[in-house]
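WP5 quarterly update. Target: Pvc16 N-terminal domain-containing protein. Source organism: Paenibacillus oryzisoli. Length: 189 aa.
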Amino acid sequence: MGNYSVIADVSASLLKLLRENMTPDPIPQPEMIGLASPVDKGDFYLSLYLYNVRESGNNRQTHMIARGTNEIQFPPMVVDLSYLLTVQSPAELSSRALDEHRILGRAMQVFYDHSILRGSMTVGTLAEQDEEVRIIMDPFKGESIMNMWNFSDTPYRLSVAYTVGPVHIDSTRIKTTKRVSETDFRIQG
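Structure tokens (predicted):
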């Protein structure tokens, strides 16, 4: 369970994972991997962009959570986060495509090898609550990802989409209750 900052914590955890596993090869410095829209001009070799958040119906919770003896909390909202991983190599034109393929291949390998983020791989609320999230590649066909790439006059860049979840966002709604302190059973015959 996490507070409202858990979405940022998931993004920071993914960024940490990529930076720790992709430098110095194939990306020279951790700062060259960042959170940014694929159209942002910058010096990122690899960018991670949160493009969609949707409720995770399969993981929806309906049970109230006990908070002490006189309070119950409404269940958390459960969401899945969709990210676009985009490569932008600064290499010369003659070697750029191969360089981008290497970078993307390594990023995909990192997400595959660490498909469940937990423990020391997480930061913030995820780490505090000992939560874990799964990283799953989205099975988009080429046409679908091209349609998703709808950024004004920017040409398409090599990209792969991932879904990360389930992510739990705690409800702030709390209800006061009284516990059952005694029962009375009567059997009538």
